[in-house]
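Please predict the structure of the following assembly.
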Amino acid sequence: MTFDLIPATDVLARTPSTLEDLLKGIGESWARADEGPDTFNPFDVVGHLIDGEETDWIPRAKIILARGANPTFEPYDRFRHRERNVGRSIDSLLAEFAELRAANLELLRSWNLTATDLDLTATHPFLGPVTLRHLLAAWVVHDLGHIAQITRVMAKQYRDAVGPWVPFLPVLTDRELPPA
Amino acid sequence: MTFDLIPATDVLARTPSTLEDLLKGIGESWARADEGPDTFNPFDVVGHLIDGEETDWIPRAKIILARGANPTFEPYDRFRHRERNVGRSIDSLLAEFAELRAANLELLRSWNLTATDLDLTATHPFLGPVTLRHLLAAWVVHDLGHIAQITRVMAKQYRDAVGPWVPFLPVLTDRELPPA
């Protein structure tokens, strides 16, 4: 599928309500469940998505659209949320994410990006030259991947509870080891 | 996590609205996108979940709760939905699933299952003896696994669009080959 701004924005707009349906008011045993050491629980994932709104996707789009000489992204801190959100509830993170996302999509739409804008580039600190189109497509995939992660992590809490059903429920054995 | 009926039912109740948030009114290019030959697209997944409501989870729970001699499940047809839903829209499947799920959860709650009930068993045609507790836990995991599948399948449509971002978006390379 080629990247197209309208269907991409449609998917980005669905994420806050999807996360609220999955997680709002959910018990702590689900919200704080993970896949083992150094893996994210659903609470962490929502915090990480907030970090993306504040420090990744739109800030990087702004760097590209500023059309400066040699635009370069700052490295992204995958663990900013850990200190930032100590003592918060998952419901408060969900509400914050929804506000940030709505404002960011309003800004994105206000730019009325053209195909020429989408071809503008910047340098990613690890990936090299990327276009605005790559960045916005990665934003969509990042959302979808983290929704998949939340449901996979929750599913795995019942690995023992399903008894002999494990081979018919492949989500239970996806990512047996976290990626290096 | 041990299986407990109230948090399990809470997760099951969230699935219809989660699916509507992800898919209601979505373009056909997302709804009919898949991971290759013999894999499900989001439309297929919702049809498969409808089949589960009509022929799998609650019908099998009823077989167990009937307390007959040698209770045995019928094999489950993973492709029933393909013929059943030709010509339907994804929105009509989402609405049908929501109705079926609500009725099934009302029935489940009306049973007021005890720990003794949850230990009752039946024979699964491939897995052998299973308890009602295993069955209900598998229902929860099945939902979560299929939500993960929908978002993974959608994400993969942008594998080329993200350009050099692929190594930072591991959902794009999950299940490179469909399970046998």
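The longest strand of chain B covers residues 121-124. Helices of chain B lie at 5-23, 28-31, 42-65, 80-84, 90-110, 115-118, 132-156.
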